[in-house]
Design goal:
This protein has eleven helices and 19 strands. With 443 residues, it is an alpha/beta fold. The strands form four sheets. Strands 4, 5, 12, 13, 14, 15, 16, 18 and 19 form a nine-stranded mixed beta sheet that branches. The chain has a five-stranded parallel beta sheet with strand order 7-2-1-11-17, covered by helices on one side. The termini are far apart.
């Protein structure tokens, strides 16, 4: 691999300085992107990660989902390109594959397949560990951002009713304190800071859940160059109410391929190599079947339970402590079937950036504005995923009265999209989280 480029200056400072120090709990994608934004507004940013994050691209203990296929959708890709102008160069240097999200991305539904048209916008096919590694590498070149690995947050620091930092336990067992003007909770689905609220007299946010009991099974493949398909990323969504299975297939670094199969309920999903192909064949998608006929497996399948999607409604809280904001899965952990997680993390980072740029916002007004912005971007992804998920009777969730009609409208929309280019464009924009479906025109 070629050597990295020289150290670059930190991102330009915002004229609206927010403080001396910001603390980010969690070094996954949501935390990394939040740190990139915070470096514009604070003198120092510290990312605290409980794992030992190594230079390799092995899946680490705190991020088991990284072993499965991930897709940074178009909306997320455009934001990363803006925040990291050298991202394409960094990913290419590490062996990632260039992808045209116009004509090399396929949305393969039961009614037919959708692709866009060739574009000048290039994304990359990449595994989740390598994407995180590339972003982390770019952040290490920024002098205002520091990393503290193998450090566990044990409790918050309070000052006059607001969060003022955190107490950490380091790898040798010693305890230290870090003061901060703003703490970002990127600890993941468990939302570490949620446990801080009740003891301090604050209500916890309302929790919405969609229990799919999904199982993900992933295997990597190699493919002769002569057999490379005309797509590099394929999303095969489930088709309610009859087909509770889905798949994501993507070319990743070093021209390997990663295929993740999903099943709602997971009653027949298996990590056995002999059953992987038969599982894939049950989707009856010609794109995947042609691929698997030519592909050579690399290693054994990996299996993981994805039992529930969650959304915390922080925007409904009447009171919330200053100095604390959640991001990523702490706010919303969507169903991985829809490949929305990475892009939602980027959209929430943009919401953080826009909120911090508001010079009139301080204290409670800042958190309220942030939660409103996040609710807007989460709404589109959450509703789109639920249009599909709530169509399966085995999924446990509170359903709206018109759930059956909404699921039927999704089926009709997919059928229309195959024959109508304008509908296809709107559907692909919704899949890529570039624009929500219009309730009156689409679903």
């Amino acid at each position: 691999m070629p050597p990295p480029p020289p150290l670059e200056p930190s991102p330009p400072r915002s004229p609206q300085k927010r403080g001396r120090h910001a603390l980010v709990i969690g070094g996954g994608m949501a935390g990394l992107l939040a740190a990139r934004i915070l470096a514009r507004f604070f003198d120092r940013v510290t990312i605290v990660e409980r794992d030992l994050v190594e230079a390799s691209t092995r899946t680490r203990a705190g991020l088991p989902q990284a072993a499965h296929a991930h897709v940074l959708l178009q909306a997320g890709h455009e934001l990363l390109q803006r925040w990291f102008p050298d991202m394409a160069q960094e990913l290419s240097r590490r062996g990632a594959v260039s992808v045209d999200f116009g004509c090399e991305f396929v949305y393969a539904m039961g009614a037919g397949s959708l692709t866009g048209v060739a574009s000048e916008s290039r994304a990359h096919g990449v595994s989740r560990p390598l994407l995180d590694q590339a972003v982390r590498s770019l952040l290490t070149r920024e002098s205002r951002i520091q990393f503290r690995n193998e450090a566990q947050v044990v409790s918050p620091l309070w000052h006059r009713g607001r969060i003022a930092g955190a107490r950490l336990r380091l790898s040798r067992g010693t305890v230290t304190e870090l003061d901060a003007d703003l703490v970002i909770d990127a600890s993941g689905m468990g939302c570490l800071s949620n446990s801080w609220l009740a003891p301090a007299g604050f209500a916890e946010p309302e929790l919405e859940t969609v229990r799919t009991c999904a199982v993900a099974v992933t295997r990597e493949f190699s493919l002769p160059e002569s057999a490379t398909p005309d797509w590099k990323v394929a999303l095969i969504p489930p088709s309610p109410p009859d087909v509770p299975r889905a798949a994501i297939a993507s070319m990743i670094e070093r021209r390997r391929w990663q295929v993740t199969l999903f099943e709602y309920g997971g009653s027949s999903a298996s990590g056995k190599p002999s059953e992987f192909v038969s599982f894939a064949e049950s989707l009856a998608r010609p794109e995947l079947l042609r691929f698997l006929r030519e592909a050579r497996p690399l290693g054994s399948p990996r299996i993981q339970l994805c039992p529930v999607s969650i959304r915390r409604r922080f925007e409904h809280l009447a009171r919330y402590p200053g100095g604390l904001l959640p991001v990523g899965d702490a706010l919303c952990a969507p169903n991985p079937v829809h490949a929305q997680g990475l892009t939602l993390a980027a959209l929430e980072a943009r919401a953080l950036e826009e909120t911090l740029e508001g010079s009139e916002l301080t204290g409670r007004n800042l958190s309220e504005a942030y939660f409103r912005r996040c609710a807007d971007v989460i709404d589109a992804a959450w509703r789109f995923g639920n249009l599909c998920d709530l169509g399966f009777s085995r999924v446990e969730a509170e359903r709206p009265k018109d759930a059956r009609a909404l699921v039927g409208s999704l089926r009709a929309l997919r059928e229309r999209a195959v024959a109508d280019a304008d509908v296809a464009r709107r559907l692909l924009d919704a899949v890529q989280l570039c624009a929500p479906l219009g309730a009156d025109r689409d679903a």
